[in-house]
Amino acid sequence: MPVEFLDPRAEPGLMADPYDLQMDSKTPGITIGLLANGFADSALFLEELGVELEKRLPGVSLLAFEKDNATVTADDELLDAITDKCKAVVTAYGH
Questions:
Q1: Closest Cα partner for 90 from 76, 77, 54?
Q2: Which of 3, 36, 53, 94 is deepest in the core (most CB within 10 A)?
Q3: Rounded (10°) CA dihedral 74, 77, 81, 83
């Protein structure tokens, strides 16, 4: 019996939408939030990412945030704290 191999790759069904950055990451004094989703190691991952961001973006300030429960969305209090203090935010999943 012959073996037939199937290639599961396909052409994308949607065209990518180009976008422009809404901020200049080299702006002096910019604050970037790092939001961990509450799963194991998400905070540790963002801590390491923060070290690298500080090397590449001198003068940037980083603020760490973490959801208490990975199974629910961020509450209004957390989102308000992030938007009040940060120009941008990086989120991360862990497992």
A1: 54
A2: 36
A3: 60
- Residue pair 71/49 in contact (Cβ under 8 Å)? The answer is no
Strand partners, 69: none
Write down the mean pLDDT value for the chain.
88
Query: Which DSSP string corresponds to the chain?
Result: ------------SSPPPP---SS-TTSTT-EEEEEE-SSTTHHHHHHHHHHHHHHHSTT-EEEEEE-S-TTSPPPHHHHHHHHHH-SEEEEE---
Residues β-bridged to residue 35: 65, 91
Residues 39, 70 contacting (CB under 8 angstroms)? yes
Cβ burial, residue 9 (10 Å; 0-12/13-18/19+): exposed
The half-sphere exposure of 2 on its side-chain side, counting CA atoms within 13 A, is: 3
